[in-house]
Amino acid sequence: MNIDGVSTGIVLDHIQAGKSMQIYELLELDKLSCSVAVVQNARSTKYGKKDIIKIDALIDLDLDVLGYVDPNITVDIIKDSKLIEKKHVALPETLTNVIKCKNPRCITSVEHGIDQKFRLTDKEKKIYRCCYCDAEFKV
Amino acid sequence: MENRNLISITDLSAGEIDEMIKLADDIIADPEAYSEACRRKKLATLFFEPSTRTRLSFEAAMLDLGGNVLGFSSADSSSVSKGESVSDTIRVIGNYVDIIAMRHPKEGAPTVAAARSIVPIINAGDGGHFHPTQTLTDLLTISRKIGRLDNITIGLCGDLQFGRTVHSLIEAMLRYENVKFVLISPEELRVPSYIIDKIRDAGTEYKEVTKMEDVMGELDVLYMTRVQKERFFNEADYVRLKDTYILDAEKMQLAKDDMIVMHPLPRVNEIAVEVDSDPRACYFDQTLYGKYIRMALILTLLGIGRNGKKA
Q1: What is the ipTM of this complex?
Q2: Is position B54 annotated as part of the catalytic site?
């Protein structure tokens, strides 16, 4: 399957197979006016299968979202068909408005207009806790 | 004090807690010196969830400091019943008073309030989450009855899952040297994992048991709690678990002569009335200490010292 290369834009590579649509939704890529290609189950020498997202413009990306979904993602910034920067992401220390607290007793379940904030409390186990009620969220 | 709010007991350093206990000791020794300390100051008690003793304790504390009190005692009698948010309620009331004590059934509500408030916020209980002024009360009680806060084996008994007083007390006691926790609860009401993680991270000794008789003789403090009906989604679970532990005169015979029995109150069945006359029972003294430590807290957050002078 062939998808045109990006001349100026961003390629999100090495996405764990099956996670591209989650990223598409979290980054709200449907709201962009430029071309966006989502490639699922592409061949990967490292992982066997991977997903790729190609964005045909240089936009501001929330790297925290990417780090949360899959810390192995690489972000390639391409200008005039040349790779000018390769960024690696990591599990972020805080998450704002990426995930929602599932504790029905949490204030965020009733109070409108406040951010859904989580902090990383266990890097190894990938555990976040709600900044309001301390409820656990496992990645 | 640097932090103007008290949301979690961990907002206070061990040094700040010690200072507050010292201040409470001074108030107990000479209440007259503080009787006009908060003259012309107002405390709002915003109780979105009913409570008798905590609200009255805050109000008595402010009145004994010569200040005034206003507020509401249930969400029904506030603008919340019209759908107002916590943020908006706090923004409005902050314009009328100098300090706010709030209780809310939703966990984390005081954090939201503190982010919006122009006056200090005291968390007077947020759901099953935190209840830091109960913890300050407990620390003052232990300090006055046992004479120290370190080198203590403390047994926590009953509903350790939803019992917010227990969670806050554990977090506070972790700061002191050589504290051991004996966690006595049914399997279903064990201390949540995030609190256990904190005990482990602090390197503090603890054990979890289901039978109180097995550990009575080890304890310096026995902290009893009520199985709270309002924390259960399922009535059948509440009925099954509510009478798991009942402290009576027979069980008290297994305890040390100088052990103290504490309880945040109200109690239902978990302490038999016959225990009240035992000199080791100090849960009613605990409520009085609650007023004194809240006086100390209000003074600290407002930066007021003896005789109303700037602290």
Answers
A1: 0.83
A2: yes
